[in-house]
Amino acid sequence: MKKVLVATDKPFAASAVEAIRSIVTESGYELALLEKYTTKQQLLDAVQDVNAIIIRSDIIDAEVLAAAKQLEIVVRAGAGYDNIDLAAATSHNVVAMNTPGQNSNAVAELALGMMVYMARNAFNGASGTELRGKKIGIHAYGNVGKYVATIAKGFGMEVYAFDPFVSEEAIKADGVTALKSVEDLYKTCQYISLHIPANDKTKKSIGFDLLNLMPKGAVLVNTARKEVIDEEGLIKIFELRPDFKYLSDIEPGNKSEIEAKYAGRYFFTPKKMGAQTSEANNNAGVAAARQIVAFFKSGDITYKVNK
Ligand code: 3PG
Question: How far apart are CA 153 and CA 144, in angstroms?
Fold first, then answer.
């Protein structure tokens, strides 16, 4: 009998685990659960005899893939798959997939939620500002970016986007203004919401020069990955632009320096929580389980991300 492991350092909501369990067991497979593990060895032990793994931001590197001798498929229940060593997966003949779009609304709601929180001075009672009429620039117009655009329009914001991989027509069709360069986006918008993946081209790509183009009252919102930020450049913009604020769904590496010097100008979630809603957990977890069943039953590789 095929065995499916759910390995989540940051567990899904219980209802999502039960939904995954039903899909897996009703298809005739066995489900194993490894949650809140504290050592890599626990993961290495748990993967020994499994045919499929469902993960979140859990690291599936060459060592894990070598230990998982029966593994055929790993599904990242979420969008970003920078936590899977894709080349090692391919060399072990393992199919890697993601579940695009399934948790996007949750991430977008957090982006806008953090913006309101900062605009209202962390709800401390002091007079703040409104989002209405302000310009927001969506850096990468994928699934999350689209939800951010929809919600931002609801707030009455002017919405702009830059994405070299999405046509101007497709962006315009959503009532969003497509800009031709990343520099134009940063020059135009007081708020920038990041939705780029973390890869060799994007890591450390958001630094001082780009951020310094932003108009007065600049707010950078990062629900993407901390790796895309050039943290030295981030400190420089905090230092030279007293108007600059940074909201991030996960603490930056230089958090203590920012906390010590720039009180009131940042907010960081203690753990990545953009996708941490029961709805997102259910959507992504169920999609992952269904993709595994479809792969085992009919060889479906629709959401494969490795070559
Ligand atoms: C994603 O890439 O889907 C999000 O960053 C969510 O990650 P998480 O499942 O670890 O919360």
Answer: 14
pLDDT attached to residue 75? 99
Residue 100's CB: how many other CB atoms inside 10 A?
17
Q: Are 281 and 138 in contact (CB under 8 A)?
A: no
For residue 74, report the distance from its CA to the centre of ligand 1, in Å: 15
- How is residue 98 written in tokens? 């993601």
Rounded Cα gap, residues 125 and 122, in angstroms: 8
Q: Residue holding tokens 């007081």?
A: 190
Cα separation values, 127 from 121, 204, 247, 266, Å: 8, 35, 19, 17
Q: How many other β-carbons are positioned within 10 Å of the β-carbon of residue 39?
A: 8
What pLDDT is attached to residue 29? 98
Amino acid in the structure at residue 77: A
Q: For a substitution probing ligand 1, which of 8, 55, 103, 225 has the most ligand atoms within 8 Å of its CB?
A: 103
Give me the pLDDT at residue 128, please.
98
The pLDDT assigned to 76 comes to 98
Where does ligand 1 bind, in terms of residues with CB under 6 Å?
A: 10, 56-57, 78-80, 103, 272, 274-276
Ligand 1 pocket test: which of 269, 272, 305 has the largest number of ligand atoms within 8 Å of its C-beta? 272
Cα of 78 vs centre of ligand 1, distance in Å, is 5
- The overall average pLDDT reported for the chain is 98
Hey, what domains does the chain have and what are their CATH numbers?
3-102+277-298 (3.40.50.720), 104-268 (3.40.50.720)
Q: Which residues of the chain have pLDDT under 70?
A: none
Residues in the chain: 307
pLDDT computed for residue 42 by the predictor: 98
- The predicted model scores a pTM of 0.96
